[in-house]
User: Fold these one by one.
Assistant:
Number 1:
Amino acid sequence: MKRIWNNITKENSVFVLLLGLCPALAVTTTFEKSYVMGICVLFVLLCSNIIISIIRKLVPELVKIPVFILIIGTFVTLVEIVLKNELPELYSVLNIYLPLITVNCIIFGRALEVASKENVGKSILDAIGTGLGFTLALMILGLTRELLGTNTLTIMSREGVAKLTGSSLVFGDIIPGFIPVNIMVKPAGAFLSLAFLLAFINYIKIRRKKHVSN
Amino acid sequence: MKKNIKGILVLTLTALICGALMYLVYSYYGGNI
């Protein structure tokens, strides 16, 4: 549990390690897209970590990287096929960022650092922690950007996740009287949101250090 | 030489298994990718 908690908080891949920023900034225009991307990355991370950990002693050093990329790419393709058939509109919105999961630093980094060296149990815990941390970071970014950029909250849209659950959950005019700042759903807004969130997190960290040293 | 052959075998086997897995899911959805 400590490992999972560590990966979500102290070693969060987006807010602390600053990895996987491409999808983090590009798809977090709505809350729904954020958690769907997070779940896709969690699935690929978990499955690839399990398989790589199982075969770690059979793979020679010479072909480690191509084999790992093959395994990660397979799971990404499976995610793409499933998403395209089950949620086609969401698939077309996520577009190029789904195949880009294959070259996401988080997944390949965890495969090399943890899955290829540790047993299956530790690899699973590491994958769950890292994936949950990434999903949480994306959800925070998505929530911030959608609230400030459109003053709405899309949890399950009719064209998206509602196709699986049967009921849509979209809230409009969350903050009454608030005029949305449209730039927050544009690329510049992505960098602004991330910058302010990082600044806030670093401020909390410094205050905590001062409190502990006192 | 032995290491190279083992490496090529592992890589080929992984590619075949990954390909079979992708084909399974692909055929489950009726060839729609």
Number 2:
Amino acid sequence: MSVHGPDVADHRDAIAGAVINLPLYEYGEVPGLLGSGGVKNPGAVPLSYGLLQVERVTNPTRRTVARAVRTKWRATLRAVGKHHPDNCRMALNALLSLENQRLEIAGHTTTPLAVESTDDAEPEDGFFSALIRITYAL
Amino acid sequence: MKVRVIGGVKDLERDLTGIVRQVPGDLRRTVREGARVGNVAARDLARASSGKHARLYPRTFTSEMLLHGLGGLYAAVYGPEPRGQGNLAPILENGSVNNPAHNNLARSADLMGPSLAGEVRRLPERWFW
């Protein structure tokens, strides 16, 4: 087991801490929304928020002899806004502020966060949302 | 005792024209195999991540050559093609407000990017020797 253990929770905490002024939720734990996809309480849903998932990425250039020093990760973030696409774009800007930041995770520093791709705000299920994919190595 | 080496410009010319004949086929095959392997990887990932909820989705993954050497370009594409039950690809690949992204194509590209670059870089070694 490498020093950079597979504890995704540390990554989530670091990313949520680095995003300013925007709540980041898990899928299924947004206040006011049902886990299965319905709206339980429209008033309780925040005006803009983000959804975060963090995954480990394969590293095909890893040499079989050397110990892997770097693990690669991808954070897929979804910016969501209510009522108007600009609320979604506000969330997207808050998430884009992650670019080039170096996070402290479990005592190690990541490489500068790189934005892989983003989408513009699209209407979806009564909200507006946009996707942003960020990759980094730890 | 003498060692005589015989060669000339005509031999070099013959070798070089032989290379020119070989190059298009090698390029086309490399690109086509790259897309096929990437498609298999993406389809396996799709099967693992969404096989239970969308049984027919992994079968929509296809690979296809787009350019066979027109203007010296070789291009292929792979990914889900909308079929039958409608276009599930955006919802599954990129996720939505209600479900997380599966990122099957992104993960397949993580594998194929360095692998294809390596294959293309090795081609001139085979041609010139």
